[in-house]
## 1
Amino acid sequence: MLLISCPVCSITADETAYTCGGDAHVTRPQSLDPSYVSPERLTDYLNLAPSARGWCRELWRCHGCGSWFAMLRHSGNNRIAATYRLDEALPQPPEEAV
Amino acid sequence: MKGRPHRLKPQAGTPFGRLIDRARPLDFRFDGKRLSGVTGDTLASALLANGLRIAGRSFKLHRPRGVLGIGSEEPNALVTVGEGGEKTPNLRATMVPLADGLVAESQNRWPTLRRDFAGVANRFKPLLPPGFYYKTFKWPAALWPFYEKLIRKAGGSGRAPEAADPDRYEHVHLSVDVLVAGGGLAGLCAAEAAAAAGLSVLLAEETARLGGIADGYDGSVDGLFLLDWIRAKVAALAAHPNVHLLTRAPVVALHEQGFAWVVETVTDKTTADVPRERLWKVRARETIVATGAHEKPLVFPDNDRPGVMLATAARLNLRRYAVAPGQVAVVVTSGDEGYRTALDLKAAGVEVERVVDLRLRPDSPMVHIGMAMGLSVSHGSAPVAVRSIWGGATVDSVTVANRLVIEGAALTREIFCDTVLMSGGWSPAAQLVGHLGARLPFDPAIGAFRPADLPLGLQVAGAANGVFDAVDVIEDGWRAGEEAGRRLNPKKKRPQNRMSAEFDVTRDDPSEPVGMLPDPAKRYEQARAFVDFHNDVTVGDLRIALSEGYTDAEHVKRYTTLGIGPDQGKTAHGNSAAILAHLTGIVPTEQPHTTFRPPWTPVSFGVMAGARRGDGFKAARRSPLEQIIRAGSPPVEAVGQWWRPSCYPVDGESEEDAIRREVRAVRSTAGILDASTLGKITVAGPDAARFLDLMVATDVGDLAPGQTRYALFLDDNGFIRDDGMVARLSPTRFLLTTTSGNAARAYDHLEKWRQTEWPDLDAHITDETERWAQVLVSGPEARALVERLDGASTLLSAGSALLEGMVEGVAARIMRARYTGAPSFEIAVAAGYGPALWTRLAEHGATPFGLQTLERLRLEAGNIAIDHETDGTVTPFDLGLGRLVSATKTDFLGRHGLMRADLTRANRKHLVGLVPDDAGLVPPPGTQIVDGPSAHPPRRTSGHVTSSGFSPTRGRAIALALVANGRARMGQTVHVFHAGEARPARITGTDFAMGAL
Amino acid sequence: MTRRYSFLSLAREALRGHRGWQPAWRKADLRDRYEVVIVGGGGHGLATAYYLASEFGITDVCVIERNWIGGGNTGRNTTIIRSNYLQPESMALYGLSHKLYEGLTGELDFNVMFSGRGLINLAQTRHELDSLTRIADANRHFGIESWLIPPQEVKRRVPILAMENTRYPLLGALYQPKGGVARHDAVAWGYARGASRLGVDIVENCPVERLLVDGEKVVGVATARGNVLADKVAIVSAVATSEIAATAGVRLPLRSQTLQAFVSEPIKPVLDVVVMAGAVHGYVSQSDKGELVIGGGTDTQTDHSRRGAPQRIEESAAAMVELFPTFSRLKMMRQWAGTVDMTSDRSPIIGPAGPDGLWVNCGWGTGGFKAIPGSGYVFAASLADGRPHAIAAPFGPERFRDGRVIDEDAAAAVAH
Amino acid sequence: MLSWTETLDGPRSLITGQNIALVTIEDPGLIEVRGKPRDRALGKALRTLTGSPLPTTPWSSAGTETLRLLWRGPDRWWLLLPRAEAAGVADDLAATCGRKAAVADLTGAHAALRLVGSGAAEALARTCPLDLRSVEPLQARGTTIAEISVTLLRESESVPAWLILVPRSFAEGLARELARAIRTTAALDLFGSRTPPV
Ligand SMILES: Cc1cc2nc3c(=O)[nH]c(=O)nc-3n(C[C@H](O)[C@H](O)[C@H](O)COP(=O)(O)OP(=O)(O)OC[C@H]3O[C@@H](n4cnc5c(N)ncnc54)[C@H](O)[C@@H]3O)c2cc1C
Ligand SMILES: NC(=O)c1ccc[n+]([C@@H]2O[C@H](COP(=O)([O-])OP(=O)(O)OC[C@H]3O[C@@H](n4cnc5c(N)ncnc54)[C@H](O)[C@@H]3O)[C@@H](O)[C@H]2O)c1
Ligand SMILES: Cc1cc2nc3c(=O)[nH]c(=O)nc-3n(C[C@H](O)[C@H](O)[C@H](O)COP(=O)(O)O)c2cc1C
Ligand SMILES: [Zn+2]
């Protein structure tokens, strides 16, 4: 049960007050250029999930204020390094080994 | 004469029986027998006081077993308490407070505890080595079901209740700075120091009392007897405004980021307004595990006989309940703990034949006190057998041998006694730490696992931390509490006056970490030296598992069942690790433990479910028209979280008859349906049109205000997710309707894309679903009916498909629709006006119709319904709705996905009409379409029926179906199976050749 | 040394203190080349090795396992076995597997305790009923024994099921009389023992770190104990498959999610069939030892921690109390979690993965235990033949490019 | 004119305990306003209406006893007002708030209950996962009670009082679950002074 702070409304609440919406910062190829999307890129976009062990960035929605934001979390131990608004600069994972 | 456990006579001036009130006897029943105990007893102490040695039967071998421990670690004395719906199996007798009229039963025996037929298993023990079931019951294969039935019968301990649980449970949420698990000396001191640092503290203690096992020790702190000192601390903590104390409330699980489950037993006698148990969902910034330690049994042959008990448990039984384990005792110990027990026994008038100390040259204060008090002690000896003279279940003697030359017969000696009290040192009870994924290293110095690398936000204190002497425990508790303060208020200076105390307590020498006795063992002895009491795992079993290649600790556990019983091996894991290391020759520090997982002690399903049962299971949503439409108790069905009437039978009509009547009413006059549950979402703003054109496959940006269009929503794969009407309310404002089950999801979906993919588009999405009560008026007379509403005719005369204005004096929206195939109007008014609107329409003669009627109507009209004609793998083209996919937009969700090879394949399944030759045959939705109706499977299928029903309008059964290449197969005959028989049906268009309805 | 397992051999061993048992599988030393290297000693990897040796005569095989065999999802699953799937591709695969399970104890000389005790999948909403009807009818025509039963029959087979005061009504159920469970550990160990006896090397505690690539071809693996060359490398490592494949530039559509389960304390038999209930998110069976084995939904986020969010457990417990009000006072004894390898259409990936010499078998998600024998067989056949076996062929990774989903999730909404 | 049916039978006390009361109140007027916090026209329109600047601090609110504007999201505000006034105010606002903002009259979408008394904290501890100790008077929170999404507004009175806004369709379920929690007589006595035995 993660404890998550919403970077938009600054409420800190249990994981149950949020919904995970998959990987953040995924590029939708057709948004870049709808006129040509290569089959490979489309396949990757529709199916791939970079869900390896380690630091991952995911979209979460705050049920309280309705905002989508991103979370930088270690998928091995569930440590949360940061939550941030989608228009913010990307925070980096902490240096020290976890 | 054979001694039995018994209650001591009251004796002034002795420390025995401090928790009981002899003046208040309690009656209870055990296995049907009436027994009596006294107030303050646990069920275990009361059973012992009544002289009962055997409290249960072991899981596999049905060996008779007595009470071994004192708390939740108890592996043997598992009982069923209560009757009827209140029956609770598998309770540890040591944790059950005795109450008047309590009804308890032993388990895993038939017919009685003393004479258990399955006890013969013990005779066949050699035939029941670990994993014997993997090697046998294989032949003949046909008999396996029979064998399995026998195995199943033999498995299991208690029985599930036969009646529903009458009790209530609740959940409570609490955020605190510090959670302290365990209210022994360490926990209390940790709480004290944390509170002194200004932190809020929840201290949760598993038993009914605070102080832990401190009452097993003597000495004084700050001039007060240990217990009095604790009393003062408890009183101060209770009065502290930042401290909440819970008893009968074990911390059962630790999770990420300081989340913990604490299960409190609120009462044993519940009423409607008092829950039996309460699940505290605690969020703590720091957690201190002060859960104490479990005394390790010594592992020697027949160490499981009733009458063999843990030494500290025996001492605590004396001190707390004035219960002595027998009359003549032998204490076997690898440390000082045994001496304390021996001295207590002596003081209580139990004869202590001998203290058998495993250590070669023990030289601690406790040993000297013991000798001075006249205990007869042998050093460097070990128990090698426990016997019962007449082949009985219990203890008549213990044989001890010199440890240095253990096999020399001359050096063994049989000592007669009726109880053996053993102490193999302490094993920190820090399993909670493992819940967070931490591994506890094996500490050879104490012969047990001891927490080391701790996850963030977690500390361990006291015996759980491998710190045992009271002096050190107190210091360690304070240290942990202060450290929590430092971590949470890093700027604050260290507390000015650090906690301190004057001690006068004896210090123990460390126990010798012995794992297994006798060290060089004979096989038949190993086969009777128990490591896991509950699951009957012996040293011999471990050796067999290893020899068969199950060498990894995890394999050993799974092959032998070591530690997987209800006690989760609390008294076993220290010993088993030492033994496994010994047997395999690995360096003990390399010996891992198996994963410690929640819960610490078992947790009832009821308390986990909490209020989520019956009508609290999942909230049902109520339409604004609920009271009216459900007044006559029509049949209802679940749609998302709603209940929607299927139809409105009158005068004992069947459902099907009601549906047909309602269909005819709509086709001939007009009907009304509660459509309030449909999703209604507005999208407003300068970029509303652009945004919607990205979200919807259908062109909508070109709609003029007042215009509507039926539209499809796809996912980016190209598959249909939802459908609905899109209406343009104004140049910058759109209204979308969605299917009932999808409203919330559709809103979330729109918001997600707007916020994450197109944040620059200026469009605001508002979920108006709950705002509107909505009535669908449908039928040839619909317009006339609607026009009878005040103001409606003026509004309708504007002619647009969507109109906003005043109807009957309130703001309303009217949208034209043709979903039923008949002229229809959806009238929406603010929710509170809904009932009045419905009533008015009904008064004007409209026939109420339900969801199944609507289904039938749209089926006749050949219209699709989401989740019927779609299943997440269906494209608009499959449904013949390609015209709803924009040919001009360069991008919308699903556009590129739709172009992939498989989605453009020629012979995909197409939506078609299906007309069974037998006009009365309705193939239920899901029925497969068979190409070749051969007598035997496999038969090729080419699709399935998506919707079906009897069409009152056509006077025959009709269906929609997805059929491979269906559009090219018009007029062909296919088959559906009904009652095991192939029945022909014809593929038609989806309009069923009905023309305009 | 006693090789065969039988009551007789057990009795003989009993007389001599069980001194003569052979290790169930040899503790092999890693050699530096094999014909086939299988990465991952879970059920699928071990079964593949077994069938390679037993059916296709290929014994120069090594199964390399990171930890201890059977300790991945195979060792932490709720063991539901059924073949009443919706799509023909799935029915072929799971149907074969189901059939092999029925004879597995004899085949392996190891009692895997397959118990075809019956499996009931409740329909509690009209939509569920329609979906299950579709499955039942698909099963009927494919030749899989599985059909719909009415509420009265459900009640007869599961007398303790609540029928009154429930949140959802009971509308019927899909019933597979031969569906059931098996002992998870025994399946892994039985295959390991079988394979080992036929000459397969099983090497534990040896993580594969990356693939060895020579040009366009995968030629072996680098492990913690050195490099191993192989003609064919088969990655059968559940979620780790995508990490390992990525070292050869192959990307697989796997998502790592947590799936939890828990057991009650053992009780005397109360439930003779497997019960699954989608509307309330829970399913349960009672093991031969007596625990109720219970599972529910997956956590949504990427997670390798092998712990899980407690609200899932709450949800499953609530589902149990809702279905079986008499379970309320029973207690959860242990909970655990596995990291499941989810694909976007909830069907597995079996086949060549791109570079020559590289094969994968993964994506079993929440339901691959039941497929172990079938998948092992068709994968072994594919490896031996150098091209996908007919039953495996539809499950190749290229289907994602084409959008050719084998969707068991959206269409059928039955997990496990 | 059509008559209004209250979601929860209008003003009525559902349950009263020693230090707690749960009362239903009339369905409030509710207008959702969407727009950018820095949108001038919007800010002006709302200031004219409420007399105070647009609340931009998360979960804060502004206005008067009868007209309260609360922050409900980064581009979303809720205006609570008497039901009778809602339609008129919504029309006015739509006219004055500018081209970029959006106004939706949501009256009827939410029912309201009020939880009053020192026992409120306990009732909420039993039903709401959020730590509510940090909520200032006149601040709001979006959270769940008995797993039903609600908006909580802490009202300004000296007694603890919470206004609970709940989607209409869930109102009855919410009232039932809250009443159940309040009726529980086994007090939590949070941070109280009960002394357990030693
Ligand atoms: C809680 C739960 C319940 C489930 N219930 C069911 C059910 O009821 N019915 C059903 O059919 N299925 C069920 N499943 C799914 C089922 O368990 C899996 O699909 C199946 O066990 C997968 O087997 P596998 O051999 O592919 O993977 P695993 O058993 O996970 O084996 C993969 C192996 O690869 C090893 N490995 C990983 N990386 C490396 C490396 N770098 N080098 C070497 N080895 C490596 C791992 O250690 C592991 O042993 C459930 C799963 C879970 C978690
Ligand atoms: N030589 C010695 O003097 C010696 C040796 C060994 C032990 N001791 C004594 O042992 C005691 C050690 O103190 P301590 O506080 O570390 O241990 P403790 O055993 O006294 O207290 C631990 C407490 O934690 C509780 N507990 C266990 N698991 C729990 C859980 N999951 N949730 C909630 N509560 C849980 C137990 O019921 C117990 O009350 C001291 O009294 C010390 O004097 C002394
Ligand atoms: C079908 C099944 C039954 C299980 N029964 C028990 C059991 O009776 N007692 C127990 O402690 N664990 C039981 N477990 C859980 C295991 O102890 C263990 O938690 C699980 O295999 C995951 O491993 P891990 O906890 O080491 O990560 C069972 C697991 C499965 C898959
Ligand atoms: Zn937020």
Note: The interface with chain B takes residues 1-3, 14, 19, 21, 24, 28-31, 34-35, 37, 39, 42, 45-46, 59, 61, 66-68, 77-80, 86-87 of chain A (CB under 8 Å).
## 2
Amino acid sequence: MDPNLIRHIVEAALLAAPQPQTLAQLAGLFPEDEQAPPGAIEQAIAELREGCADRGVELVEVASGFRFQVKAEVHAWVARLWTERQAKYTRATLETLALIAYRQPITRGEIEQIRGVAVNTNTIKQLEEREWIRVVGHRDVPGKPALFGTTKAFLDYFGLKSLDELPPLAELKDIPELEPQLPFDITPPGIASATLSHDEAGEEHAAPEQTQ
Amino acid sequence: MDPNLIRHIVEAALLAAPQPQTLAQLAGLFPEDEQAPPGAIEQAIAELREGCADRGVELVEVASGFRFQVKAEVHAWVARLWTERQAKYTRATLETLALIAYRQPITRGEIEQIRGVAVNTNTIKQLEEREWIRVVGHRDVPGKPALFGTTKAFLDYFGLKSLDELPPLAELKDIPELEPQLPFDITPPGIASATLSHDEAGEEHAAPEQTQ
Amino acid sequence: MSEPTAQEAGHPVFPAPPQQQEMPLAVVKGQPVLQMPQDLYIPPDALEVFLEAFEGPLDLLLYLIRRQNLDILDIPVAEITRQYVDYIGVMQDLRFELAAEYLVMAAILAEIKSRMLLPRPPAEEGHEADPRAELVRRLQEYERFKKAAEDLDQLDRLDRDTALAAAHVPDRSVAKVPPPVDLREMLLALREVLKRAELYTHHAIRREALSVRQRMGEVLSRLSDRQFHGFETLFTPEEGRLGVVVTFLSILELAKEQLIEIVQEAPLAPIYVKSLAAAANDDEGEPALPEPTSDGADAPND
């Protein structure tokens, strides 16, 4: 099969499809008795990607496959096609999303624990409606709280192939006013040590005053 | 303003817009204090149009403006993005196909004689559309019934070099161990005939006497 | 008493909320601050703005620590508590559930303060955790995710920084993909037919060389022009002896089924073959086919 034809098919399919397409999906465009040769689709993708150098769009790979998208450098002009479309997300939404992205699976209670404030039901609903997060299970504690995780749509939206591509989580920063006075080298006994050891797992038990 | 940038903007806008864009709409993408020079957008469109020669899409002008669209020559592949899997073949279809494979050239009447029931016209059409069977001639008897045979596509699909690679009929009868491996329901022999009558909606029972 | 807590013995030394000044909303350690909010003292009329500007008490504390260099140890607990209690009245018209969290924070601060003021039993000296440790840990943890949220917001995202590129598809008709067929399915179907056929008919289907059947179709196709073809032209010597035999058998079988006519004008003269099953009706398609029932009756000589 002519490699140019394969490239044309892949390009047209990526531009025609409403969703990003995986290599397998692209291979599925070719009928059983006339399959694209092995590696031909990868080759076509590579060529298309290079061919975008002098174009206004680029071919990128995101979590659910390959897609063409407007280059960031011309987006400012293109954005004038739509009067007001850019949804702004509040800090509450972004912080909740960040906690779900970096700490998934995580319950709403655990999010509240870290943020120190109640999570608005609408915030969760908004993220669910955008299909950026979903319930991935329930924690086996009283009340069986839902555990949230991010979706492929979340990665797609932020142009990421996988969670690994998220910006690395910052190191714990010292609190300068307090740090010198804090005996961190001494293992804190009792409740404090239990809580500290749960640092990564998301903590269930807060100081009693914290929980609603 | 750099003509390349203008071309990139026009291309990206046409690919991002849900509707065709007129020259005026495209000109509107540029802010008042940084308008595209006169003729620059027309020039960009002309260049983009030429640039489609070796691509899977083309830039066309329709009543409401310019748009990129999938080229007709790759549509057959792209259309598979919206594929609809047809229902599994009925037992009647499989029997008809098998009889044509093993007894070709064979007329529809002969198939009906062996199966004991009339063959639905759709069954034959279905197999012809799939290009698994074809008319290889007509029997020189009153009515000149078509003689059906299998095609190379049939052999290709089942990975056979020739019909000889199909198991001989005698062998077929003696392989009960075939059954447990089969992923589909096997009708127990006792109620086979009763069930078969439901196989295909339009299939009328032929009187058994007719076949004698 | 050389404990750090001893330094605060003289409070409240904090200045009162400066309602007499116009711009500064608060004064921290004698320094007027113009930005909102300045410290834990929130003028009641600014409470709503205050609640919207911060994501909660941790966010506020972080702000105070990072921007105002507030020393958590230097918090006049009694004053804070009194003010927070005053807010309760104001908050009734506002979002109380948010304000509650600030009250919780005030309580935590008060608790820390009181624990630090209390003398520790000598036996537990060196074992008791610093009462601020948990708060510090939570502040650090929160700060990480505050930063993560900012990073997330910086990522190029659809709609804001890029848009999907799509081309029009002139014909959106749905392609129909035929179902997959397993060869064994077909064989099993055939077996069922044969079982039934044995019940209905007296003649069982004989074992046949299928290559002959296949070749019969091929020969018929080659003869489909209804012209006489040289007998030899039907053979392909490249196929070897077996291929020639298969072709020969298929010609004999076709002759037996009266699908072809074999003509030889004289002994040793060239042999010609002509199809009796020519595709004369091919173009007419379905309508040319006879009724299925009469068709069935047509082939008793099988």
Note: Residues 88 and 184 of chain B are 11 Å apart (CA to CA).
